[in-house]
Amino acid sequence: MSIANKKSVQSKQDEKPSQYTMLLEVPPRFQWDHGNGYCGEVSLQCIGLYYGAWISQGLIRDLNRGEFLLQRMPFNDKRDPLSTISLLHFKYDEWDWKNSHSAQYRDFCRWMKLSLLRKHPIMFGTFLPDDNCDDYDHIVPAIGIRYRYPNEYDPDDILIYYDLYSSKSI
Fold it and tell me: Greatest CA separation found in the chain?
């Protein structure tokens, strides 16, 4: 029989596996100023740079026939981000938000994590304190993740992304 104090037994029970960091080699970028911003364009530009292709934010907007958003907004919207991505010869895996449960946060976080661990950069929408859009306010590129468990959702995972306003990752 071994003797151990409660503190040492408790600390062994509380030990978690090591945390890992996966970070893609994506240089920071700044979005061009504009009333609606160029966040979608520069996020796609970041992904292009990861694969070795520099693509102008202006070219992306021109190909898209307007501001690059994560999906068509109204049904008759002439902007088509998926067509633009295809025109630029990117392969992509779109989050299936239309067929997901309404409480999709955990599944979406797991999907982002698995994409990043496969070394596929992603773009996603965020909310900003001073904006009031229903779907999202800003598009940013995710470039890495800190995690303990590779195949499951973990609320302690840390997503690493560029906010497109500064040169540091968040």
Answer: 74
d(CA 156, CA 19): 10
pTM assigned to the model: 0.82
Distance CA 33, CA 8 (A): 56
DSSP 69: -
Any residues with CB less than 8 A from the CB of 150 and at least 6 apart, and which?
20, 113, 117
Reading the block at residue 31, the tokens are 């979005």
Q: pLDDT of 9-36, one tens digit each?
A: 444 556 677 999 999 999 888 887 766 6
Which residues are registered as beta bridge partners of 21?
146
User: What span, in angstroms and rounded, lies between the C-alpha atoms of 160 and 22?
Assistant: 9
CA 113/CA 1 separation, integer angstroms:
43
| Rounded-to-integer distance, Cα 46 and Cα 90, Å | 13
| Side chain identity, residue 151 | N
Asked whether the beta carbons of 119 and 130 are under 8 A apart, the reply is no
